[in-house]
C-alpha cells in the first residue's frame, strides 16, 4: 500500500512540474502590443510591445488571424491595432501562428 502511495505522489509531482514548464514555455512565445507596420511583402509585420521594444514577425502560411473574432487577412490590420501574437521561433525569425486583434471595444 505504501509503495502505491509513493508511486502516486511521484506521478503527481512529475505531472505538476511538466505542466508548469509547458505553461511557462507557452507564455514566452506570446507577444502583446500595437501594430506598427505591415511590410510590403504582406507577410511580415512589426509590433511594438508596451516597453517600447519592436518585434518583427513573419506570418506562417497556415496562421490564423482574427479581428474581433472574424478570420481576416494581414492586410486588414491597421496601424495602432492592439495585437496578441502567438509565435514560434524559426531559424532566424519569429513565425506568427495566431494573431488576435480586438478593435473598438
Let me know the largest β-sheet: 5 strands, mixed, barrel
List low-pLDDT spans. 20-26
Q: pLDDT average, as an integer?
A: 85
Calculate Rg over CA atoms: 19 Å
> What order do the helices and strands follow?
HEEEEEE
Q: Work out the strand percent.
A: 35-45%
Please specify the SSE layout and strand pairing.
Layout: H1 2-28, E1 30-38, E2 44-49, E3 54-67, E4 70-71, E5 82-89, E6 94-101
Parallel strand pairs: 3-6
Antiparallel strand pairs: 1-2, 1-5, 2-3, 3-4, 5-6
Can you tell me about this structure?
There is one protein chain. By secondary structure, this protein is an alpha+beta fold. It has a domain at 31-101: OB fold (Dihydrolipoamide Acetyltransferase, E2P), CATH 2.40.50. It has 1 helix and 6 strands. The chain has a 5-stranded mixed barrel. It is elongated.
Amino acid at each position: 500500500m505504501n509503495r502505491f502511495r509513493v508511486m502516486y505522489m511521484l506521478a503527481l509531482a512529475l505531472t505538476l512540474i511538466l505542466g508548469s514548464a509547458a505553461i511557462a514555455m507557452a507564455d514566452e512565445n506570446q507577444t502583446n502590443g500595437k501594430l506598427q507596420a505591415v511590410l510590403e511583402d504582406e507577410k511580415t509585420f512589426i509590433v511594438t510591445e508596451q516597453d517600447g521594444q519592436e518585434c518583427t514577425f513573419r506570418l506562417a502560411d497556415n496562421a490564423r488571424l482574427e479581428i474581433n473574432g472574424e478570420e481576416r487577412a494581414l492586410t486588414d490590420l491597421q496601424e495602432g491595432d492592439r495585437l496578441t501574437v502567438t509565435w514560434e521561433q524559426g531559424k532566424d525569425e519569429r513565425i506568427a501562428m495566431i494573431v488576435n486583434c480586438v478593435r473598438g471595444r
